[in-house]
Amino acid sequence: MLKRVHFPSSLLPYLLVAPQILITLVFFIWPASQAVYQSFLIEDAFGLSTEFVWFENFELLIEDAQYLQSFGRTILFSAAVAVLSMGSALILAGFADRVVRGATTYRTLMIWPYAVAPVLAGALWVFMFNPTLGIFPFLLDMVGIDWNHYLNGTQAMTLVIFAAAWKQIAYNFLFYLAAMQSIPRSLIEAAAIDGAGPVRRFVDHIFPLISPTTFFLLVINAVYAFFDTFGIIHAVTQGGPANSTTILVYKVYNDGFVGLDLGGSAAQSVILMILVIAMTVVQFRFIERKVEY
Amino acid sequence: MASITLDNLVKAYGDTEVLHHVAGQIEDGEFIVIVGPSGCGKSTLLRMVAGLETVTAGQISIGDRVVNQLEPADRDIAMVFQNYALYPHMSVRENMAYGLKIRKISKDEIARRVEEAADILELRPYLDRKPRQLSGGQRQRVAMGRAIVRNPQVFLFDEPLSNLDAKLRVQMRLEIRKLQQRLGVTSIYVTHDQVEAMTLGDRLMVLNGGYVEQFGTPIELYDRPATTFVAGFIGSPAMNFLPATAAEGSVTLANGARIAGSGTAHGTVTLGLRPEHLLPDEGGPVRVRVELVEQLGANSLLHGQLEGTDTEMVVSMPGHMSAAADAVMAFTPTADSLHLFDPETGKRIAE
Amino acid sequence: MVENRPILNVITHLVLILGIVIVALPIWITFVAATHDAVRMTQAPIPMLPGTHFWENFTQTLFGSGLSGTETAPVWRMLLNSLAMAMMIALGKIAISLISAFAIVYFKFPFRMFFFWLIFVTLMLPVEVRILPTFEVVADLGMLNSYWGLSIPLIASATATFMFRQVFLTIPDEMLESARIDGAGPLRFFWDILIPLSRTNIAALFVILFIYGWNQYLWPLLITTDTDMTTIVMSIKQMLEAAEQSPQWNIIMMTALLAMLPPVFVVVAMQKLFVQGLTETDK
């Protein structure tokens, strides 16, 4: 952790860490502790008096059907995005791995969605699926499906799932391709000599050997789906119709900034905080336990 | 019958030809070593036999079948890779059983074969371990075990001992040879180490720059090298090459010394003399000005120059010998130890 | 490897091309939409092939007065804001993380581990988890509607620090010993030796952080009420809302295109560095 050869203590190291520590304290630790504190309060409608109510806000949340629905919805959303995005990336990376020359070209063409902001991704997809003008509703109409995600909750959820997954394919693709390319070629050749065909080789060898990457991406994708997708929801459905796409992170924003329920929103923030911490711990645990060759 | 026929093989990458008309006939049960410096094409040749590289022109036959178009899995071969290529996520037992499992051999038969191979290779205690828990030598044996259980027609070895330390290498070398003799499977073994080649092969194929320099038994290559390349490659320390002229059965060196010999060669030649074929002799024709002597215990290597010239020479003398720097020592070549080569083509001149 | 199944190669390329089509489709449609005039864009279905109005739309978007029905600054101004924010975040993060990692790795001082864990904690606090209180702090400090407010709260996260820490840990000890013999003090060592050795990592990280900064959405949304300070990524949402009343999809899509171009360009141009940085940061 510390280099064997190092400098002794003085004023200098304190000065060096000061900027980061300062900003961390002011903009991270303090607000986080404020959120925790506020989650124990209830303010009245005018913000004039506050009351310390211990865990009442949390109890209210747990009993709130809407909150629980939002929680369940978020889990569903996460799972769908992870499966769709990782599955597509796995298939694409598997094929790209077979291309001897040109793998880099395919990679270049695949990675640009990474650079697109989630909210823009949302905007693009909502444009493609615009009930009056969009190309997809037009095509769906020809097979008898009436598309209007402004009215249909399931369709709205489907739309945001696709937009979120589309954006993440690039990231997952990069990691899967890198993992596959780090498998020694001679291993695959040995399997071929042993008689394994392409599909068999993938199932018996390639997939098991990239399992650390799969674990890693699961956590990353979960965190992405929980938090980075705010922009997509905000741009595409604003949580609607009828709250059918209100995921947890959107609810925090909505209840807090729009609904001005500070205590409830703070409590939601705290719960989200606990979730992130849990996911981060899992991530670091798994990275320590990398499969060795 | 698992003989192997290499018929006029050419390998090219785009416009660059890396193997030029390689040909040879390998008999059933032979242990053939393909040897040469890095980049000479030996691994490429092996991989072509395995089916891991395409053939640009020519044919490869295993037994009676032409195998050019066949997938590696269909050629009935087994290969031991330089880095062993063991499946890291499978146990030793599973590694060895994998190829058999795919060919849908019965579980009993698989178990029997795996146990048999494990006995031969002394891998019994390790059957349930994973590769990362094994030492280099053990992993090597697992790689061989994987090849043995398949009962293939041909074994292919791609520099399997390069990753082992020197002592282990010598030990494993012997084991591979004994194993092959016991099993009697036709084998092709690739290495850049000429000592390995000499000790392992029934016959050696020396490759240089994609060309076959010579294909024969180790002793043939040692006694009658076909080119200066083979002459300099086989035998350590390497053969001395001296510019000379030949006429009427004798050879005259650049410094005027004359060596009697037989033969009809004449004109400028390159004379090859092995360091171990020069005997100390007061009146001998080959006079060397000493630079330094390396003491190896069993023999001594004398480094110097041919007197009166700049040509470097090495002489190997038995036992402990020493000589002062700048002293001149005289030697006589032993009988039949003169090798004459054409100075331009490098090819052996018939005597 | 010899695989006498050419059909498999065909399938491989087909699948990959299909993948690229799916990935590129939204962007293609956006591009096409940006090249037609407003009237064409109100007729269903929207066109799939480019039109001829690219430059017209381009100039109108860039220099026009913003879309009717929105409260956004002119697009060129928003691009500038985005650029300023992205650069400040990227450069700020790199600078702070470099010196922090240097201190943590190369100095033995009291509270060293405490600081390390403090920085680590920030990994678990993305902005979405602390939006309200952070907003309050920023407001109290009077940093709303400013470039500082847009960037400072986002530059202390730990990923960059961890990456540099990892890089520094792999630099051989002999470097420092030899520098000391040469008479270099800590800051000299840092500037003359450590930073040049970390160049590729800094470049890779810059790509990732620039994109991160440029694409910020929730935070700028909250703290800018002044139209002059809107960023281009923020404005997309407002334009979508405006589209309800008076759809000018060609302008909206052109704006979206402009909003996408800089990060995409940076990623593609520095692809190799970016991939290397990505696969090494998140470990």
Could you walk me through the main structural features you see in this protein, from its secondary elements to its overall organization?
Chain A is mainly α. Chain A has helices at residues 12-38, 56-63, 65-98, 103-110, 118-128, 135-142, 153-181, 185-193, 198-209, 211-228, 230-236, 248-258, 262-288; strands at 41-43, 50-52. Chain A has one domain: MetI-like fold, CATH 1.10.3720. Chain A contains 13 helices and two strands. In chain A, strand 1 (41-43) and strand 2 (50-52) form a beta hairpin. In chain A, helix 1 (12-38) crosses helix 13 (262-288), helix 2 (56-63) packs across helix 13 (262-288) and helix 10 packs antiparallel against helix 13. The model of chain A has no long low-confidence stretch (mean pLDDT 83). Chain B has two domains: 4-232, Rossmann fold (3-Layer(aba) Sandwich), CATH 3.40.50; 237-341, Nucleic acid-binding proteins (OB fold (Dihydrolipoamide Acetyltransferase, E2P), Beta Barrel). Chain B has 351 residues and is α+β, with helices and mostly antiparallel strands. In chain B, a hairpin with a 2-residue loop joins strand 11 (240-247) and strand 12. The longest helix of chain B is centred in the middle third of the chain and has 18 residues, at 166-183. The model of chain C has no long low-confidence stretch (mean pLDDT 81). The radius of gyration of chain C is 24 Å and the shape is globular. Chain C starts with 5 loop residues before the first helix and ends with a helix. Chain C has one domain (65-281): MetI-like (MetI-like fold). Chains A and C meet through helix 1, helix 3, helix 4, helix 5 and helix 7 of A and helix 1, helix 3, helix 4, helix 5 and helix 7 of C.
Task: Give the helices and strands, then pairings.
The complex is a heterotrimer of chains A (293), B (351) and C (283).
Chain A: H1 12-38, E1 41-43, E2 50-52, H2 56-63, H3 65-98, H4 103-110, H5 118-128, H6 135-142, H7 153-181, H8 185-193, H9 198-209, H10 211-228, H11 230-236, H12 248-258, H13 262-288
Antiparallel strand pairs in A: 1-2
Helix pairs in contact in A: 1-13, 2-13, 3-7, 3-10, 5-7, 5-11, 7-10, 10-13, 12-13
Chain B: E1 4-13, E2 16-26, E3 31-35, H1 42-50, E4 57-62, E5 65-66, E6 77-80, H2 92-102, H3 107-120, H4 136-148, E7 154-158, H5 166-183, E8 186-191, H6 194-200, E9 203-208, E10 211-216, H7 218-223, H8 228-233, E11 240-247, E12 250-253, E13 258-260, E14 267-273, E15 278-280, E16 286-295, E17 299-306, E18 312-318, E19 328-333, E20 339-341
Parallel strand pairs in B: 3-8, 3-9, 6-7, 7-8
Antiparallel strand pairs in B: 1-2, 1-4, 4-5, 9-10, 11-12, 11-14, 12-13, 14-20, 15-19, 16-17, 16-19, 17-18
Helix pairs in contact in B: 2-3, 2-4
Chain C: H1 6-33, H2 54-63, H3 75-106, H4 112-121, H5 131-140, H6 147-151, H7 158-169, H8 173-181, H9 186-197, H10 199-214, H11 218-223, H12 232-245, H13 249-269, H14 271-281
